[in-house]
Amino acid sequence: MNKIASLIIIGALVVALGIIFTGGGGSTERGVEIKDGIQYIRIDAGGGYFPRVTEAQSNIPTKLIVKTNGIFDCSASLAIRSIGFQKILPPEGETEIDLGIPNRGEPLRGVCGMGMYSFEINFI
Questions:
Q1: Cα–chain-centroid distance for residue 106?
Q2: What is the pLDDT of residue 12?
Q3: How far is CA 7 from CA 1, 17, 21, in A?
Q4: Strand pairing category for 108-112 and 77-80
Q5: What is the mean pLDDT of the chain?
Q6: Distance between CA atoms of 89 and 56, rounded to whole angstroms?
Q7: pTM over 0.85
Q8: Where are the domains of the chain?
Q9: Of 111, 109, 113, whose CA–CA distance to 54 is shortest?
Q10: What are phi and psi of 12, to 5 degrees?
């Protein structure tokens, strides 16, 4: 294999691994479920928040479920300023946060204690 082909393959692998480990940047993923008239949005915390951008329905009772699994970084300290939420999450388990009935077009943003990691939920 020649040198240029090797460099192209290595470059493609670096890009692919970057997408895998960062969650694809600002991609929108669905971690949303409606059960018994309540919308549940699931976010994983640990080394950041995943998915980083989520779309959900507006005008429906909504709860955010933040799942932790052995985290000890700053993503354990979660603040959602628009609803006055600030808490140190447990190292393992699920934390349920009542979001009320979100309005269309008013995104909800969460951020870690150091401001390094964040997530956004867009209500459509």
A1: 17
A2: 52
A3: 10, 15, 21
A4: antiparallel
A5: 86
A6: 23
A7: no
A8: 28-123
A9: 109
A10: -65, -40
pLDDT at 40: 98
Return d(Cα 50, Cα 98) in angstroms, integer. Answer: 19
Closest by alpha carbon to 100, among 68, 66, 123, 117? 123
Q: How far apart are CA 74 and CA 122, in angstroms?
A: 23
With beta carbons less than 8 A apart as the criterion, state whether 96 and 73 touch: no
pLDDT lower than 50: segments of the chain: 13-29
User: Across the chain, how many H-helices and E-strands are there?
Assistant: 1, 11
Q: What is the largest CA-CA distance in the chain?
A: 60
Checking phi first, is residue 104 left (phi over 0); if not, alpha (psi -120 to 50) or beta?
beta
* Assigned architecture for domain 28-123: Sandwich (2.60)
Residue type, 111: V
What length is written for the chain? 124
Helical residues (DSSP H) of 1-124, grouped into ranges: 3-22
pLDDT at 6: 57
